[in-house]
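Question (not urgent): is this output format expected?
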Amino acid sequence: MKITDLKPKLVWECFDEITKVPRPTFHLDKMKEFLTGWAERHNLKYATDEAGNVVIYCPATPGHENAPTVVLQGHQDMVAEKRGDVDHNFLTDPIKTVVDGDWVRAEGTTLGADNGLGCASAMAAMIDPDLVHGPIEALFTTDEEQGLTGANGLNPDLISGRILLNLDSEEHGMIVIGCAGSICTVAEYPIHTVSTPEGYVWYEVGINHLKGGHSGMEIHLGRGNANQILARFLWLAGDQFGIQLSDFQGGGLPNAIPREAHALVGIPEAHAREFEELASLFDKTIHDELRLAEGDDFTFGVALREAPEKTIEEGYVVPLISTIFGTPNGVQAMSLAVPGLVETSSNLASVHKEGDDKVVITTHQRSSIDSRREEITDRITALYENIGCVVETNDPSVGWEPNPESPLLKKAEACFKSLFGHAPKVEALHAGLECGLFLEKMPGMDMISFGPTLKDIHSPNEKAYVPSVEEYWKFLTELLRLLS
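Got this back:
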């Protein structure tokens, strides 16, 4: 079975088109071209702005021209993550989709249902001949996954509607009315490299196949962080035997929990056997610790390697490993205002030795309280500046303050209950959405966010639950009818 055989057929057909368009964050020229070309093929007007956002305008169903304009919003880009053993170029290759029972996934890569299904449903709504709706403005923003570039740079003159349905949530049956703000912190650690000394046995140390996932939606699940696990082991080995370090590569995108990390380390010849025994014991330890969160599919181990030509000068190694190991990671505080909601977190996203002169460490902080986000960012900055790093942060994304009295929310709750016989969950998220920025640029906007059920987004295990897509589509189309 292909995804174009699934229901609702029009949504899956639009998503199938999107999966054929390369669209990793910061590489969206092809997606912009696709969207504008799609609008032209369907005789729909469109506009773009300098940030690369695309707005497609769909007139109302005849007789509903005076209904309020509804903005359907999704983001163009996808997180580009793949398994280490998969040959895939996100700049050129289409996503290979697989129907696996009640789920749709990709072959070894992220699926891009985040937010491809949101974009696809906005497209389907504009061309469904049976759908009753008022005027629609479909807003497709750029680079949501890193920096919210499109929402930050949006030209508000392109949008006239003051009702916005953000189609970028990942649990059907939940209506989102608020989200956390976030910031990305990058520390650059200057190093010196020297010729590799004699008397060491060299190993590659690696951890692979952790679940990873979204650093907002899944940070509370206790999953392992590959960078911190690797640094923990290297700290133990360094403390017991002393080590040389030639390379450290781990993690990828700021908003993805790192699944894999590898280091090339030298151990004094006299301690090689003890090092291997330590690795075996550590492997058992972390499998015991992470058994409930990760299962048994991940691997940790060491393998003999040839000595490299150069290694990091010894005086730089202990501060680097100790600081990575000691970096705040995971949930830092739970909300006292919203039970069960993560208030503040940090993700030790990536560690990469670049060339012979620096190691770059990227972390991503989130909080529903701006001052707490600033506090955790300051702690991490102080930690890395203490070892001589140059630390920079990007512009923080704006949180979205919940409005429980929203007229749109009341209509959406009533609509959902009439369709499915029970009330939806109404929650705020620890993940980031673009809605706070829209509210800044377009005061008075009434917004909610919802979507079909997706699992393990931002990882190669990403998958979409097929039955939820059909129910989500029923909800979206009925809500559009009620708003018309």
